[in-house]
Sequence to fold (288 residues):
Amino acid sequence: ACGVASASAYYLWVHRPVEAAAPVTTESEPNDEPGQENLLHADAPLEGHLGARIDESHGDVDVFGFEVPAGAGSIAVRVSELPNVDLAVDVFASGRSDPLVVLDSMPLGGPEAAPNLPLEPGLYLARVHEVRVGGRYPIENVSDTYTVSWTVAPRGPDDEREWNDGISQAELVTLPAGGELTRRGFIGWAGDVDTYCLASARDALRVELGGLERLDLVLESIVEGRETTANEHASGEGESLDVAGADADRRVCVRVSAAQGAQRGDATEPYVLRLRHAPTVVVPDEQP
Fold:
């Protein structure tokens, strides 16, 4: 009887329900360099510290790796704020030392984010660090945590298509006959520029750009090498310009950027750009 009981107990122990391992929710040090990165799954934030500095000139750095799947299109990356640290995030492809983009849009104590990075499938790294200030020791914050996360960011029909910084990378758009074209986009990081081009346009056009509270936007048109700039208003107000009609089809491009001297972007609020056919102005004949 004792043997039967022992055998039964052993059977129950072998076939006991296996408890799932608790998900990892915090970083694991050391993760200062590529090759030491913590794996970051989509929609599964990790907590991190910018703790003990490396030396008198270099603060703590946390590196996270994430795998972008095929068909993702674009992704969003976000790092929450630390109360006494000006954060920056370098995003780069694994095996490369030059960042694809540096996220440094918010001042001291603010979060950092990119809403629409168009990354090809593969492994990428996000390096979280302090923005260094010359003549000052790196900040050590062992009390407060930030969270880092990423997610697939589906694009809507009116959303911009990055990368679209210059004429050669411009997003080609089509203005419906008698209709209006709308684009929602972000000046998501310092130096970000968004360019849209109509491959063929003859009619006069009206271009309107909504304002952003935190960023002074600049609107430009580029027609056959001639640039026209609209920057009459400050942040919180929009800009507009008119493109004259022509006798023949020509390429018309529109560019959105931050005002000169702006060192940051705004990944929290999208602008709205509208293009439409301008109404025909009829000048009446002079009466005798």
Observations:
- Residues 2-14 form the longest helix (13 residues).
- The helical segments are 2-14.
- The chain is about 5% helix and 40% strand.
